Amino acid sequence: MTTDTTATQTPEDGTPNEETPDEESREPEAAAPDAVIEAASLDAAPTDEPAPDAPAPEIAAPAVEAAPVEVAPTAAPAPVASTERPFRIFTDLEAARAAIIRRAPLSEPVLAADVQAGIDALWGEPVTPAGHVARILDAVAREGDAAVSRLSQHFDGSSYDLIEVTPDEIGEAFELVSPEDRDAIAFTVSRVRRYHETQMEHAPTSFTARGTGMLVRPLERVGVYMTGSDAALPSSVIHTAIPAVVAGVEEVIGVTAARADGTVNPLKLVAAQMSGIRRIFRASGAQAIAALAFGTETIPRVDKIAGPGGIFVTIAKQQLFGRVGIDAIYGPTETLVVADEHASPDLAAADLLAQAEHDVLATPVLITTSLAQAEAVAAQVEAQLATLEREPIARAAIMRGGAIVVPDLEVAMQLANEFAPEHMCLLVAHPEALLPLVKNAGGVFLGESSPEVLGDYTAGPSHVMPTNGSARFAGPLSVLDFLKITSVIALSDEDLGRLGPYAARMARAEGLTGHARSIERRLEGR
Fold first, then answer.
1. Active-site residue (options: 27, 375, 422, 452)
2. pTM score, whole prediction
3. How far is CA 225 from its chain centroid?
4. Beta pairing partners, 326
């Protein structure tokens, strides 16, 4: 589950977000939405270079379900209510690679005209998105609380006096949230905590052996970005905070946008309290990330920042990398379904649409061994689109993805691993047989009883997962993200005599005489 880039209002940066970019901003399509492309082939090796007819590069704006974001790039396809079949079907695998499988690299986002105008007006001159964020970071570094409060209230359209949420506010939140919602939050917290406690049992532990070893220690303080303001996203809070708490982080704090009246959504406060977040601050967007990185009079500096956010949160994370720990750079959500001829077309379509409704930049992909199955799923997609409240958004996302027909499941898994999806759903007769073939995925969901949406909430593993192909080298948020390792060297005199001459020789070979003499003096004094 990642960040939603389709809200019409962006409370975390105060700039309106266009749901319908103009025609010039839409990305070119690699094939007509209803085209069936013939001749399957796997001869050509995958390449990192986008094909000539691949979609235009776009910035990956991080997302969690229904989260308001700071801005949507104008390169996003417009949500449209089209009567044509939106779900493309490919039987030519190279065409499928060019249109869907290959990712365009992240680049400087091109903002909607009114968003860019608002940024330029704020600074009194034209400023790029990266420059906008750099100025916010500088303001927070210089002014502390004053900049955080001024910028957050300006962008969020909110008003308040205290940056830190009080215990009374948290207590009131428990009264405002219905018993049913409290029970759902508590159940989700319990499931996610239990999974990560089991994960912790398999985490690395401290050891010493033959004079060397390592210490495994949790981070001391972590900041959770609690994305959303009016939108209630307790699941995101839970799935981000609990891995840190279970890992043993001494202090987990949260930052969140405030609503217009200065309050914080009570569902978020209840989820934060139940998850183990003990201090919460009203701060949003890039200024919140800066406050966590630098520290202010009120908001303490943290060792690591975790949680998805909007595009300016993403840019702030990129610019602060190395100054503070960063969990990852998250992009629009993506789901890849591998289905054989036995899969239920309506469930496959439902799984694709569940993620498509997040964001116009979401990417839903079906890989199947049956052309008939592809056509059945495409028909179900069209039928189910009409039932969705967010139909225009889901339709735009569906038009970015498509179905790929392959000769067998081995080829299906090869393509799936090339795509390296955030979510990989195996809707096949024997999903456990394909699990050994999974190489690149944030999460893998086996069978029709393990829908990805269950993973968004109550399955247990964190739904904060790698996107945009980063599953090739990264995994979901876990307890491991909040542990650090310190190497230990505790050698004896005998070890020094045995290892020292080789080390001294290596040092002299590298021209580092001081290094060599540090060892030789010890050996000479024996």
1. 422
2. 0.83
3. 12
4. 305
